[in-house]
Amino acid sequence: MDFGQFLVLLLRTPAQMTTEATQAPGYVQVMASRFGVQWSMIVAQTINFCIVAVVLYFFLFRPILSVLEKRKAEIQKGLDYSDQMKVKLAEAEAHREQVMKDTALAAQRLVNEARHQASALMDDQTKDAMIKAEAIIMHGRETIQLERVKMVDEARQQLTQLVVSAATRVLSRDLQPDERKRFTESAIDQLYKGSTGL
Amino acid sequence: MKHDVWRHKQFLKCLMKLSLNEAGEIELERVEAVLSSISSAFSYLEHKKLLKDYYIRIEDALRREEVRIRYVGGIRPEQIEALKHFFSKRYARGVRVVAMEAPELIAGYRIRIGDDVYDDSILGRLKRLRNPQYYR
């Protein structure tokens, strides 16, 4: 077959080729012979292919598969570890939040207790201060009252002493002898007649 | 010891009774008689304490039976007798009256018998007015 015939065969449409194959008997054999197909070679090639496939399977594909399996297992292990870590992290986070809540509650309770105690202490100190202030005020009033009484007594005593001194001088100077005698006799009469001048 | 003290006191009481006359006054002759009997009956060392206690009691009795009147401006004799009668009756014993002038009283009298004082003088009234707390 020359090049022109070959071009004609190549340029045929599929419909034309189908028609020719169905119309011409032994078409497959013709085409096989035209392409140089030899069944022995095909069988040998097949066997070679099988042998190569088996060799590749056992010496290349299986180690690669095993390596891949190992990598896959390691990756799975890592993923599992990661999941576990995530779970642990979540648990730790939850624990932390719980601890934070407990701590916040405890702190709040402590703050409330401290406020209550401070309030009670403040009330007690206020009461004590009020009692002390009242005592001081009472003491001051009593002191003032005593000082006032003392001053009045002193003033009265001084006034009395002045009056008595003046009366003593006046009576010693101005009382006449007959008045003194009359006074004495009258006093003595009163004594032995009933009223004493003790 | 306690019994000796009691006996001593009882003996002194007897001596004091012997020293008083019927009017309850200390009489000089009776005191002299008591002293002479003590001197004859006891030695000096024995009756030293007795004489001392007897002296104290006689002095006290004389002081208690003496009415010392201090006055201003004169006092009538009948008033002195009335006072003697008054104090004899009040103290149930005989008393002697000693009267003397005391111009510092200004007017009135001041009578002392034993530990008691009767004061109705101007000076006493002024003192009571000055220091009323001493005469409450």
Work out the helicity level of chain B.
55-70%
Strand order of the largest sheet of chain B: 2-1-3-4
Unreliable runs of chain B: none
Seen as an oligomer or otherwise, the chain set is: heterodimer
Total strands of chain A: the figure is 0
| Gap between N and C termini of chain B | 43 Å
Order of helices and strands of chain B: HHHEHEEEH
Counted beta strands of chain B: 4
Which protein chains are joined by the largest interface, and how many residues does each one contribute? A-B, 27 and 29 residues
Which class of secondary structure composition applies to the elements of chain B?
alpha+beta
Rounded Rg of chain A: 71 Å
**Rg over CA atoms of chain B:** 19 Å
Overall 3D form of chain B: elongated
State the low-pLDDT regions of chain A, or none.
none
Which short descriptors sum up this protein?
heterodimer, A: rod-shaped, B: 5 helices
Give your account of this protein's structure:
The complex is a heterodimer of chains A (198) and B (136). With 198 residues, chain A is mainly alpha-helical. Chain A contains 5 helices and no strands. Chain A is rod-shaped. The model of chain A has no long low-confidence stretch (mean pLDDT 87). The mean pLDDT of chain B is 86. The longest helix of chain B is centred in the middle third of the chain and has 22 residues, at 44-65. Chain B is of the alpha+beta class and 136 residues long. Chain B is built from 5 helices and 4 strands; from the N terminus they run αααβαβββα. The A-B interface holds A 160-161, 163-164, 167-168, 171-172, 175, 177-185, 187-192, 196-198 and B 71-76, 79, 82-83, 85-86, 106-109, 111, 116-124, 126-127, 129-130.
Give the secondary structure arrangement, pairings included.
The complex is a heterodimer of chains A (198) and B (136).
Chain A: H1 3-10, H2 14-23, H3 27-35, H4 39-174, H5 177-192
Chain B: H1 2-19, H2 28-41, H3 44-65, E1 66-71, H4 77-91, E2 96-101, E3 108-113, E4 116-121, H5 122-130
Helix pairs in contact in B: 1-3
